[in-house]
Amino acid sequence: MKKFWVTAALAALALQLAVPLAMIWKKERVIVKGEIVYFRSQPVDPYDPFRGRFVTLSISDDAKWTDKVPKSKRVSGKVWVRFTKDKDGMMEAIEARRSKTDAEGVWLRIPFEGSVDKNENVSIDLPFNRFYMEEKSAIEADKHLAGWRNRNNHKSVAVVRVLDGEAVLTDVLVDGQPIREFVKAKRAEK
């Protein structure tokens, strides 16, 4: 009987380790093998007492709904969104649908809940919207970016790796400079 409980405890421990390791492996695989793409974004720096400081990015776009439109006009669940590069090399949503096709572009599978409008468009909010930073740097980034949100005269770009419909936010560029380097440069100016 003791052998059973030891085996059960070891199996439970292995499962507890396997789940987070699988999640980490999945994201790391995207980071290592994924294609680099860029999205226009608007930075906002909130504080969460449990997760610390991070830069929240507002990344949204409209896409044409190319599947059959439900009678209720409501769509929920995972959808595939196809993106192509615009003239500046930034990704823009072209279409959204329940299943992926062979059409050219970058395809992301994202959670979605919303309505199809009268022009058969849907508004997409992309799920990679948090970029974590060291707390002091995040506070400084927020201080420098706060004025930008009002004037909107600087470019903020999300650097994302994409592989097999999965995406991982790897960096944020502020006027073409990684946000951590931007903060270091602002510190040096003082």
What does this 3D model show about the protein?
It is a single chain. Helix content is 32%, strand content 42%. The mean pLDDT is 84. It has 190 residues and is α+β, with helices and mostly antiparallel strands. The chain has helices spanning 2-33, 135-151, 179-189, and strands spanning 35-40, 42-44, 47-48, 52-58, 60-65, 74-85, 91-97, 106-115, 121-125, 130-132, 156-163, 166-174, 177-178. It has 2 domains: 28-59 and 126-190, no CATH class; 61-125, no CATH class. The strands form 3 sheets. It has a 5-stranded mixed β-sheet, with no helix packed on it. A 4-stranded antiparallel β-sheet has the order 1-11-12-13. The protein is built from 3 helices and 13 strands.
Distance between the termini: 68 Å
Please state the overall shape, judged from the principal axes of the Cα atoms.
Answer: flat
Count of the separate structural domains:
2
Helix-strand topology string: HEEEEEEEEEEHEEEH
> Residue ranges: pLDDT <50 for 5 or more in a row?
none
Helix content percent band: 25-40%
Average pLDDT taken over every residue: 84
Q: What's the story with the biggest beta sheet?
A: 5 strands, mixed
C-alpha Rg, in Å? 20 Å
SS content category: alpha+beta
Number of strands: 13
Strand content: 35-45%
User: How many helices does DSSP assign?
Assistant: 3
Secondary structure elements and their pairing?
Layout: H1 2-33, E1 35-40, E2 42-44, E3 47-48, E4 52-58, E5 60-65, E6 74-85, E7 91-97, E8 106-115, E9 121-125, E10 130-132, H2 135-151, E11 156-163, E12 166-174, E13 177-178, H3 179-189
Helix pairs in contact: 2-3
